[in-house]
Recover the amino acids of this structure.
């Protein structure tokens, strides 16, 4: 998290530096009208700031090196030696085959904790997909059939019968999603929740049903199915 | 058992198949796109206004107004409350999550300057959340009309072979049959069985819990230009990345305490993951017939998606003293792997027209006073179309089913108009904005009160000075929708009426480059 904040801060800092040409004067609003930045300004920058040019990194470092050597010929003479870098860094603590150097191929970043380390590749024993068909649905139910019109009663009419009617006129409940968590006893839990007696809590920080339960049911039934409290057993495929 | 599994794996892929339901197609076309905070504050209208990075996802011609460059990032946070009413009973559920709007960069410049011969070009690269599927839905009700198990009975149709029913429908009817949610009718013989539901149809407490996650994130590259500050044109190519996850759990329980009626509860848990990548184009023009006035037209091509569904199902049934509490998963038939189906989906085209009044279109920001803008968008939701992937399941049965599915989409949905409008008042560096949007009803009424709409009110503030700008917006959304736990052909059923209330707080931070 801290690294993300740092990255964001660096990005903002970088982008802020891009806006230098707009620090003074008005900031254009392209929704209304704007003009391109005058190109002359960039020319002026180049003329005035010739000490800072870095048109090519090689040229830049060569210039720096020449300036340093003019100041002290002997101190920087090693830089003329083409083997200087290889002598200095070969066999050093930074280039051995040990774990000290984080940049060597056998280092920390390439050890077995690295998911991209390509030694001893373990191939995920993925099993092949058996069923490659689409999901099932009875599309005929999307036809406007007469049967539903004849039997249909508006579900949004309150106090639609049964034990979900409410004496105080409010039919809104705020029970948690609790019957989702217990397969073996789902019937009992659902009946309890439906009556408004449950105190189970929901799960997930971003995923909740609000509030506590309300006892608004006028129903008097109590669920007590004895077999529903047993755990579920894997069902075999039936044979005939 | 191994022999049985072998037989099943041979038979399952060759079976007559059904496929996605029309609701899947609507999910990917009835979307509410995100944008920058400035655009969202004015209701999302951006077809004729231009000058904002979000134009690349609405009307790329709007990028032609750029003669400078912008870099913007748009993080946000949203919440959504669902109040669902099912058979007279209302339940609430909610969800909070992070979001992001348009983020990217646009670079514009004048290639030629002068009276009646100025030209500009602009390029943009950006990413945007064009749809968010995140929501939690919960409803319960006492259903005196039908049972989920009747869906299984319709799935097996006229199949009277008990062995076939026990293995041929591994994501629904077979699981229900093997756990005795549905059963044979006594007196029959194989292969001429008739089947019945063990559920206490007419007196069932039902519960549906759905958790939806994911969205569509679109990556786009846009080009725009203008001539003489009068005619603006632009186009973009986008790659939408779609990811959708659904966990659904439906339970129906005997509403009574009778332990002798051989049914306590039946329950089906389903998991679905849909992922895919698509391709679409957006093209548009903006014309300024007079000073202050802008007229815009934009067309979004249909998005062509290559999709993959992965899904599984588990059924648990308690038939009390009859067979007890039994459970079975589709994995028992599929070697514990999810089923996988690859297919193509084409989502509907969109056409939008718009007008804006901008006061004043002048470089001096002190004289820029504000604007009004309004969009009308047409989306033909019934134009969604599924087809098979030739490299995957390309059987005649699947092709035939997808054809039927496209017909069902035609029957279930219709074209709609969406309206978006908003305005801004500008006080040199500070801006205040208001907007609204209305997304019309995509449903045809099939007799079950299918209807839905969304309405949003938005407001925001902005500050622009010293080379950067910051916009803050709050969008309040109210919506109506309908959710069906199941649909059956031969019994009465009902959907849950879902009322949605949501909020989205969005911040856009931008830099002139």
């Amino acid at each position: 998290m801290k690294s993300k904040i740092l990255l964001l801060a660096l990005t903002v800092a970088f982008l802020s530096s891009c806006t230098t040409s707009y620090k003074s004067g008005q900031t254009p609003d392209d929704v209304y009208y704007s003009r391109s930045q005058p190109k002359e300004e960039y020319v002026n920058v180049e003329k005035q700031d010739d000490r800072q040019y870095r048109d090519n990194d090689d040229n830049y470092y060569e210039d720096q090196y020449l300036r340093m050597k003019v100041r002290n010929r002997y101190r920087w003479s090693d830089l003329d030696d083409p083997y200087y870098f290889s002598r200095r860094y070969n066999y050093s603590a930074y280039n051995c085959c040990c774990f000290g150097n984080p940049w060597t191929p056998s280092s920390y970043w390439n050890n077995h904790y690295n998911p991209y380390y390509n030694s001893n590749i373990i191939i995920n024993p993925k099993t092949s997909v058996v069923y490659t068909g689409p999901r099932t649905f009875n599309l005929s139910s999307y036809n406007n059939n007469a049967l539903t019109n004849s039997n249909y009663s508006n579900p949004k009419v309150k106090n639609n019968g049964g034990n979900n009617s409410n004496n105080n006129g409010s039919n809104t409940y705020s029970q948690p999603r609790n019957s989702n968590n217990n397969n073996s006893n789902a019937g009992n839990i659902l009946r309890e929740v439906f009556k408004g007696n449950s105190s189970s809590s929901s799960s997930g920080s971003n995923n909740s049903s609000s509030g506590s339960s309300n006892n608004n049911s006028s129903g008097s039934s109590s669920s007590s199915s004895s077999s529903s409290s047993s755990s579920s057993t894997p069902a075999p495929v039936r044979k005939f | 058992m191994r022999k049985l599994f072998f037989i099943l794996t041979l038979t399952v892929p060759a079976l007559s198949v059904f496929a996605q339901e029309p609701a899947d197609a609507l999910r990917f076309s009835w979307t509410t796109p995100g944008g920058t905070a400035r655009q969202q504050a004015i209701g999302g209208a951006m077809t004729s206004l231009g000058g904002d990075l979000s134009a690349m996802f609405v009307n790329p011609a709007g990028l032609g107004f750029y003669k400078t460059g912008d870099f913007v990032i748009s993080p946000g946070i949203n919440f959504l409350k669902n109040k669902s009413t099912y058979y007279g009973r209302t339940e609430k559920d909610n969800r909070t999550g992070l979001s992001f709007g348009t983020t990217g960069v646009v670079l514009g410049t004048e290639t030629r300057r002068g009276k009646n011969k100025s030209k500009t070009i602009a390029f943009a690269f950006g990413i945007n959340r064009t749809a968010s599927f995140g929501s939690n839905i919960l409803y319960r009700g006492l259903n005196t009309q039908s049972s989920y198990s009747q869906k299984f009975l319709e799935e097996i149709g006229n199949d009277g072979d008990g062995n076939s029913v026990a293995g041929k429908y591994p994501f629904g009817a077979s699981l229900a049959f093997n756990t005795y949610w549905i059963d044979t009718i006594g007196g029959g013989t194989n292969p001429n069985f008739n089947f019945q539901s063990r559920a206490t149809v007419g007196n069932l407490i039902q519960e549906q819990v759905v958790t939806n996650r994911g969205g569509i994130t679109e990556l786009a590259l846009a080009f725009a230009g203008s001539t003489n500050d009068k005619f603006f044109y632009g186009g973009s190519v986008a790659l939408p990345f779609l990811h959708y996850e659904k966990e659904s759990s439906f339970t129906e329980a005997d509403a009574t305490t009778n332990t002798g009626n051989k049914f306590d509860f039946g329950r089906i848990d389903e998991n679905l993951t849909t992922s895919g990548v698509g391709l679409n184009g957006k093209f548009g023009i903006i014309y300024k017939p007079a000073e202050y006035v802008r007229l815009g037209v934009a067309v979004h091509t249909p998005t062509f998606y290559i999709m993959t569904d992965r899904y599984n199902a588990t059924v648990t049934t308690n038939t009390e003293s009859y067979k007890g509490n039994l459970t079975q998963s589709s994995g028992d038939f599929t070697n514990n792997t999810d089923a996988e189906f690859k297919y193509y989906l084409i989502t509907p085209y969109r056409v939008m027209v718009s007008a804006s009044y901008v006061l004043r279109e002048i470089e001096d920001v002190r004289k820029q006073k504000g604007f009004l803008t309004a969009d009308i968008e047409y989306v033909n939701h019934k134009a969604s179309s599924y087809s098979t992937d030739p490299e995957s399941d390309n059987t005649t049965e699947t092709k035939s089913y997808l054809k039927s599915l496209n017909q069902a989409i035609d029957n279930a949905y219709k074209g709609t108009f969406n309206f978006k409008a908003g305005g801004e008042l500008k006080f040199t560096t500070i801006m205040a904005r208001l907007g609204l949007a209305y997304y019309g009803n995509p449903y045809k009424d099939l007799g079950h009160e299918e209807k839905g709409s969304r309405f949003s009110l938005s407001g925001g503030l902005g500050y622009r000075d010293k080379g950067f700008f910051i916009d803050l917006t709050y969008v309040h959304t109210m919506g109506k929708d309908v959710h069906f736990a199941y649909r059956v052909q031969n019994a009465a059923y009902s959907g849950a009426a879902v009322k949605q209330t949501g909020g989205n707080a969005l911040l856009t931070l931008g830099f002139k480059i």
